[in-house]
């Protein structure tokens, strides 16, 4: 458990300690495989930023020519699938590092049906899942 009084040891950062003498953002940046550690501030102004939850948001240009912000991991999964994510789908980071958005680290998750479903409805739902994700 992190010491609540301990602070991040990175230059010009006074955030609370998370792990390995760093705050959560600096720890996640340092944990990225094959990447040198850089400050989160280095990402701002380059078409992307980091959310307060530690995810990277990117600015993309839509078909109408307007820019909008989207979470990078969701955007990458949508490009891989060739469609938008459905409301019951989410993207999971396998290694738990929210900034590691390599496709091999991302997997599509489905939010399961709630408990107490009727058998008839469960069978219908199972057929929908098979049709949706069958390769």
How does this model look, in words?
This protein is an alpha+beta fold and 135 residues long. It has a domain at 44-133: Alpha-Beta Complex (Homing Intron 3 (I-Ppo) Encoded Endonuclease, Chain A), CATH 3.90.75. It is 24% helix and 18% strand. It has helices at 24-31, 72-81, 119-133; strands at 48-50, 56-61, 67-71, 89-93, 106-110. The strands form 2 sheets. Strands 1-2-3 form a 3-stranded antiparallel β-sheet. The chain has a two-stranded antiparallel ribbon with strand order 4-5. The radius of gyration is 19 Å and the shape is extended. Mean pLDDT is 79; it is low at 36-45.
What is the succession of H and E elements?
Answer: HEEEHEEH
Low-confidence stretches: 36-45
Structural class: alpha+beta
Strand elements, count: 5
Distance between the termini: 43 Å
- State the major sheet: 3 strands, antiparallel
Q: Helical content, roughly?
A: 10-25%
Key features of this structure:
Homing Intron 3 (I-Ppo) Encoded Endonuclease, Chain A; single chain; 5 strands; alpha+beta; 135 residues; two-stranded antiparallel ribbon; 18% strand
Topology:
Layout: H1 24-31, E1 48-50, E2 56-61, E3 67-71, H2 72-81, E4 89-93, E5 106-110, H3 119-133
Antiparallel strand pairs: 1-2, 2-3, 4-5
